[in-house]
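Let us work through a complete example step by step.
Step 1: write down the sequence.
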Amino acid sequence: MIKILFICHGNICRSTMAESLFTDMVKKRGIESYFEIASAATSREEIGNSPHYGTVNKLKKEGIPLIPHRAVQMTVRDYAYYDYLIGMDTNNIRNMQRIVGGDPDGKIYKLLSFADMNRDVADPWYTGDFDATYRDLCIGLEGMLKYFEENNMIITGGQQLR
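Step 2: predict the structure and record it as tokens.
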């Protein structure tokens, strides 16, 4: 099983949207049993809050089921547990490394790096543009699935190789 934790600043916009979107993507491909998917924040600001209404509305508009969620903060235990800790932007990556004391096992990635892009996922908290965030997430998540396939971790036919 590939355990993935999506992480942003507050865990109510980008990481929550990524969790719901990726869950839907793998279900549609018939490979959901090979993944454990969750999301978290680097800050404590939104702990306990439900997803932002903009995230809820965008997912509904796209026909993507919202994963029931309340914001939580990433912990050192998460680093030990998850295989991939996926940050949405450069600040998230820095804060994730601060929380866990670096990245000795090479588990921390910026999402769009899977699409050979070094830029950040658009943050709708500041822009209000949930469409741009959704587009960025689709690009990054498709790139991540391609990475798993190319590295023989999954086959889209529903089998996992290792």
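Step 3: interpret the result. Residues 158-162 have pLDDT under 50 and may be disordered.
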